[in-house]
């Protein structure tokens, strides 16, 4: 299995501002030392530049991004059925989002969702597209796997509500496009023998692995964070300025990545087919 020296978890944000409060980065090194919160008042471009720097230095880092790198495709045979521009795979999707959102500041993706063909597939506040299906929307295969693990996935096409992931995913796709060719993204790319690798994570999965019961997935105090870190083989953390969901999610997820990175079955889940690997991707840790 890949051997990593560094483990980085990024709690992402789709907020259309330069420095979203929801962006948080945590960094753990091999061993048992506690993850450290990398506090810089991040912008999305800052994170893209920082990750590019890891690649330039050849850092053997496993990097978890809390976002969906692609939309569902297998269920309907296309990301956007009926749209001539619907891309064939994940990297082409990232390129399309970048192309249609190129004028949006702060790596936002409002223009993509505003496109007359794209908007038909999304549910937005006061504007549900005619191709957004009844109910909770379309799901990727790995999101059905998340549900089977008693997690609570949301459709990437849903842009409404505090728990929606669509906005984060779209802005993240712009970053993935900018890192194309510099930082491989599993499972779209084969695992390299050196340098960093990006994977999709679901922070609630880390919390569950640390023993947090269903229905309670957020940590807002130092004692609980240390208890959860200990369950993942990590020492207690150095105090941080603010114990909000973003910071603690990132710190716990970095410890979790280190704890599970050597498990072969997580790199070869039974449901991951070659088609899914190039189109929908997979959430690391979903079996």
Question: What's the SSE blueprint?
Answer:
Elements: E1 6-11, E2 24-29, E3 36-37, H1 44-57, E4 61-65, H2 90-100, H3 110-114, E5 123-124, E6 127-128, H4 141-148, H5 166-178, E7 197-200, H6 203-209, H7 222-231, H8 245-260, H9 264-267, H10 274-279
Parallel strand pairs: 1-4, 4-7
Antiparallel strand pairs: 1-2, 2-3, 5-6
Helix pairs in contact: 2-5, 6-8
Written description of the protein model:
The protein has a domain at 6-68 and 179-267: Nucleotidyltransferase, domain 5. It is an alpha/beta fold and 287 residues long. It has a five-stranded mixed beta sheet. Helix 2 packs across helix 5 (166-178) and helix 6 packs across helix 8. The protein has helices at 44-57, 90-100, 110-114, 141-148, 166-178, 203-209, 222-231, 245-260, 264-267, 274-279; strands at 6-11, 24-29, 36-37, 61-65, 123-124, 127-128, 197-200. The chain contains ten helices and seven strands. Strand 5 and strand 6 (127-128) form a beta hairpin.
Give structural attributes:
single chain; 287 residues; alpha/beta; Nucleotidyltransferase, domain 5; five-stranded mixed sheet; two-stranded antiparallel sheet; 10 helices; 9% strand; globular
Q: How would you briefly describe this protein structure?
A:
The protein is an alpha/beta fold. It contains 10 helices and 7 strands.
